[in-house]
UniProtKB/TrEMBL annotation:
The keyword Transferase does not apply. The keyword Disulfide bond does not apply. InterPro entries: CoA-transferase_III, CoA-Trfase_fam_III, CoA-Trfase_III_dom3_sf, CoA-Trfase_III_dom_1_sf. It comes from Mesembrinibis cayennensis. It comes from the Eukaryota. SUPFAM superfamilies: CoA-transferase family III (CaiB/BaiF). This is AMACR racemase. Belongs to the CoA-transferase III family.
Length: 299
């Protein structure tokens, strides 16, 4: 697209050799699929990561569009820009960043690649330590239809989980007896189903059992921990969103408390600020190069 506009990296780097030119695409600038359409699930599948996600005896499933689009795409591209900016302080030169979502999410999964031959990945998908195979790394439904998340991997944490559930570890199979995991899952599930989420929080809060509530978007801002850290903010329309993270000690981000703009809402204002005439802006709109947003538009 940028080449079609006469704004490819070769042209712009001739004008400004210090320019950092980032290109973020699903499949990257080269390769068989480079010009092919795709979405997060496609990039995730080509990276190998999708094959690791899913329950036992079920199809692989994508965890919304967070891994490839945002983590492997946006975040890794931003890291590439920061890296290129740092390198420029030494060389004085800019460069082009080829950020592929496939490669970004594959690189994020380096832990899976480096640990794939270890004991805790020896079983089929959905039967391992971190993919839902164990009773102590799982989610459980509570009596009020909510859920608790359990991540009691280490023995000292597992012991506190067992204690909180009202069980005696001496009368249970070993934590690492994989043949007993399905039975223990059912046992844990039946116990968690006997109390509400709030009641379980009263049991496990202030312990190291690694048990926490699965919070909905409606509940997350009102949770005491998040309230104390002011992890979520509310804009002037009452809409809640996460506060920018991570928090810097000396120069923390100051988020805007105004609502998000509609697509194209400030197009004319910005173009006028950059010296475009009303006539030029009208022509761009007529040619469908730009878009004007309207207040109250259903976007």
């Amino acid at each position: 697209v940028m080449e079609n506009l006469g704004l490819g990296p070769e042209v712009l780097l001739q004008e400004n050799p210090r320019l950092i030119y980032a290109r973020l695409t699903g499949f990257g600038q080269k390769g068989k699929y480079a010009k092919q359409a795709g979405h997060d699930i496609n990039f995730l599948s080509l990276s190998g990561v999708l094959s690791k996600l899913g329950r036992k005896d079920e199809n692989p499933y994508a965890p919304i569009n967070l891994l490839a689009d945002f983590a492997g795409g946006g975040v890794m591209c931003a890291m590439g820009i920061v890296t290129a900016l740092y390198e420029r302080t030494r060389s004085g030169k800019g460069q082009v960043i080829d950020a592929s979502m496939v490669e970004g999410v594959a690189y994020l999964s380096s832990f899976l690649w480096k640990s794939q031959h270890l004991e805790f990945w020896k079983r089929p998908r959905g039967e391992n330590l971190l993919d839902g195979g164990t009773p102590f790394y799982e989610t459980y439904k509570t009596s009020d239809g909510k859920y608790m998340a359990v991540g009691a991997i280490e023995p000292q944490f597992y012991e506190q989980l067992i204690k909180g559930l009202g069980l005696d570890s001496d009368q249970l199979p070993s934590q690492w007896s994989s043949s007993d995991w399905p039975k223990m899952k059912k046992k844990f599930a039946s116990i968690f189903a006997q109390k509400t989420q709030a009641e379980w929080c009263s049991v496990f809060d202030h312990t190291d059992a690694c048990v926490t509530p699965v919070l909905s978007f409606d509940d997350v801002a009102s949770h005491q921990h998040n309230k104390e850290r002011r992890s979520f903010i509310k804009n002037d329309h009452g809409e809640i969103s996460p506060r920018p993270a991570p928090c810097l000690s000396r120069t923390p981000a100051v988020p805007s408390l105004k609502r998000d703009p509609f697509i194209g809402e400030h197009t004319e204002e910005i173009l006028l600020e950059y010296g475009f005439t009303k006539k030029e802006i009208t022509k761009l709109y007529q040619d469908k190069v730009i878009e004007f947003g309207k207040l109250g538009a259903n976007l």
